[in-house]
Amino acid sequence: MVWLSSQAASGGVEGAGCTVQTGQALEPFGEMVGRGEVTYSRNTIAGVVTLEGVGLHFGRPVRMTFKPAPGGSGINFVRVDLPDSPKLAVRVDAARMAERRTQLGDGEVSVHTVEHVLAALAGAAVDDVEIELDSVEPPAMDGSAGAFLEAVLEAGIVPSGAQSRFLRVRK
User: Fold this and answer.
1) Which helix (H) or strand (E) holds 31?
2) 50 - beta bridge partners?
3) What DSSP string describes 100-112?
């Protein structure tokens, strides 16, 4: 069994969803709304929380601030150190090849080494959040997702007021 977002199922997002091993079952984490479709309430954070440190690959000092975001807006990085504070949406099509790190965006308007931040957000079930960075990558902290998860949980998790839909594929 595989769970896919309706966007992924319609071909909008390449590689989305996760495969479940034989004998495993995913429990629906939302409400069945129709033939094989499930919705769930999206979440954001309740408050603002900031972390500071030094980036792992570029070695630059950085201040990273998590902020609540409107329902349905997704996860977005905002480079406040660049003119006009460009926003980078976390999407598969924004990922670029980079050595030993995940990169979103191109050239100067990019963010690097975001995998632990994204893991923390996924673990906390946060769907909609804005992440301001004043450098090219988040702080390394202790090298794990732990500090990011702690910060997000400290901010609090609340419904963002939006719903997401997923399809249940059985074969």
Assistant:
1) strand 31-34
2) 65
3) TS-EEEETTEEEE
End-to-end CA distance of the chain: 7
Strand partners, 157: 45
Which pair of structure tokens corresponds to residue 111? 């963010």
pTM for this prediction: 0.76
DSSP secondary structure of 91-150: -GGGEE--TTS-EEEETTEEEE--HHHHHHHHHTT--SEEEEESSSS-B-TTSSSHHHHH
Work out the pLDDT band at 127, boundaries 50, 70, 90. Answer: very high
Phi, psi dihedrals of residue 120, rounded to the nearest 5°? -65, -45
150 φ/ψ angles, rounded to the nearest 5 degrees: -60, -45
**Whole-angstrom Cα distance, residue 16 to residue 44?**
21
Phi, psi of 8 (to 5 degrees): -65, -40
- Reported as a single tens digit per residue, the pLDDT across 37-94 is 677 889 999 999 999 999 988 889 999 999 999 999 999 999 999 999 999 999 988 8
pLDDT of residue 144: 93
Question: Could you tell me which residues come within 8 angstroms of residue 169 by beta carbon, excluding any fewer than 6 positions away?
Answer: 1, 2, 3, 4, 9, 36
